[in-house]
Specification:
157 residues; six-stranded mixed sheet
Length: 157
């Protein structure tokens, strides 16, 4: 499974397994003041190799999703986080949607299957950003079984 941006962006869910097991985090909102902002995407070193060619990260403009909790607590391997000091995390009605630890892309095993999710991708311009394209390509290849790590029934527990 590969999910991009809006595939996790609805605070009303009809299938808990989809959001809790396949995605691994529940969307709570995105900035509205302004909605689209420059922010620093920071890469984490992982065994999967996703994003390894991108160094420490880059700055780009998008709609930045926040989640109720970090997917780390649900077994995900975080690939990229947001530097919350690089943008304004003020949501609808002035709600503070900072997460502290703010994952924005991650991978996870679901049984022997693979799930890669990136919250980047609201604006068409994100799909010509060279760094974002490398991140997506790496995530797609990993989800297709070509990454450096493997998933087993044990790895998903």
């Amino acid at each position: 499974y590969v999910g991009i941006h809006g595939s996790a962006g609805d605070p009303i869910y009809f299938w808990d397994w989809y959001v809790d097991s396949l995605i691994g985090a529940r969307f709570i909102g995105h900035p509205m003041e302004p909605q689209f902002q420059d922010a620093r995407v920071q890469l984490e070193k992982t065994d999967s190799g996703i994003g390894a060619k991108l160094g420490e990260g880059w700055t780009m403009n998008d709609e930045w999703y926040s989640f109720k909790t970090s997917p780390r607590g649900n077994g995900a391997t975080v690939v990229a986080t947001l530097d919350e000091s690089s943008y304004s995390a003020v949501g609808h009605g002035g709600q503070d949607i900072k997460m502290g630890d703010h994952p924005i892309a991650w991978s996870r095993c679901v049984g022997t299957g693979r799930s890669f999710y990136s919250a980047i991708g609201h604006r068409p311009e994100t799909y010509v950003d060279a760094n974002h394209l490398v991140l997506l390509k790496d995530g797609i290849l990993w989800a297709a079984g070509q990454g450096k790590t493997q998933c087993s029934a044990e790895s998903a527990k």
